Hints:
There is one protein chain. By secondary structure, the chain is mainly alpha-helical. Helices cover 81% and strands 0% of the residues. It contains one helix and no strands. The chain crosses the membrane at residues 12-33. Keywords: Membrane, Transmembrane, Transmembrane helix.
Amino acid sequence: xxxxxxxxxxxxxxxxxxxxxxxxxxxxxxxxxxxxxxxxxx
Length: 42
């Protein structure tokens, strides 16, 4: 495996982490907003 291939794999992994982190953040914000508005009676 040459250096370019290694860098490409690392870049893909980083990209996936960023995308999943973004999606989780969006989900978390939605959840927080719904709790803040009192949609759930806990």
